[in-house]
Amino acid sequence: MAGGVSSDRPENADAANDERRSTPTGSERRGSLGAYAQLVRLPNLFTAPPDVILGAALVAVAGSDPSPIAVAGVALASVLLYAGGTTLNDAFDAPIDARERPERPIPAGHVSRPAAFGFGFGLLAVAVGVAFVAAAGPGAIAAGLVAAAVVAYDGLLKGTAAGFLAMGATRGLNVLLGTTAAGSAVLAAPARVLAVSAVVTAYIATVTFMADSETEGGNRGAVAAAGGGAAVAVLAVGWYLVALEPPPLETGVAIGFAAAFCWWVGRPLRTASADPVSSTVGPAVGACVLGLVLLDTAFAAAAGVRWAAAVAVFLVPAVGLSRVFDVT
């Protein structure tokens, strides 16, 4: 009966049509999910846990015993921190992106700017909570420092020398976040741990400097700076191996991944240096971001092949998803 009545009354049909229009279709839901996946730079999320696992590996070499559950917990926190950071990056940059990158989710109208701000800050808050559950006070402090560096870069310092350093610090502090899986307070980490964290910070700072000129073109100096940062990072791997003197197998694995890192970032950096335009600098930035996984693996290998494997495995989904979603 009800069906017959509805079909006989146009206003009911109009109401039904309105209801259908207000209910997201499957394709609209997929589009919304795709917009958020682009907003958080989905491939890049898999480059965050390697930093944390590297931190745990560094303190394991120093004699600590990181809990696997704690490592997994702070790794999850690092993913949430990264997602929050990239979301806030686009939220703060929305007016600029409307001119330079109109295809991004916010200027394209797929995600509102207020929603992006709420989502980004919410992710940072949840990340600190997850880190506290996983590694108590030290974990929450380290995650809080990463979140502070994220907000400082996204909202205040972007495009300045301090901003490049702040972006690098988000990665260096992420390594220190991994040390808290062993119950280590950040400031109590061994000197070698702090040195490796500083190397990661410097490398990402130079990559950020290059990324800042991505849409401008003609800036070979920025590309050269990123290349110099990569070279220093590789030299630091050699220093670390000499200082630590791991067994031959671990040394060989570390050298192999350091060589893979050189190959991975070297090719696109050479291309960008020869012709520094958006179409070459963008891929170079992406390669350098994903290449951090290889650099982390080279350092982590000194703690054992299992540590190296735990880091390197994240390169697979990162590279696979980078073929679908933008990295920069």
UniProtKB/TrEMBL annotation:
Predominant location of this chain? Answer: membrane
Protein's membrane topology: Multi-pass membrane protein
Please note every region of biased composition (Basic and acidic residues).
8-30
Key word Membrane present: yes
TM stretches of this protein: 114-134, 140-157, 193-211, 223-242, 248-265, 277-295, 307-325
Region Disordered, as annotated, extends over: 1-30
One Gene Ontology term, aspect cellular component = plasma membrane
Which domain of life does the UniProt lineage start with? Archaea
Question: Where does it reside?
Answer: Cell membrane
Q: Does the keyword Transmembrane apply?
A: yes
Provide this UniProt record's keywords sorted from A to Z.
Membrane, Transmembrane, Transmembrane helix
Record protein name field: UbiA family prenyltransferase
Organism per entry:
Haloarchaeobius amylolyticus
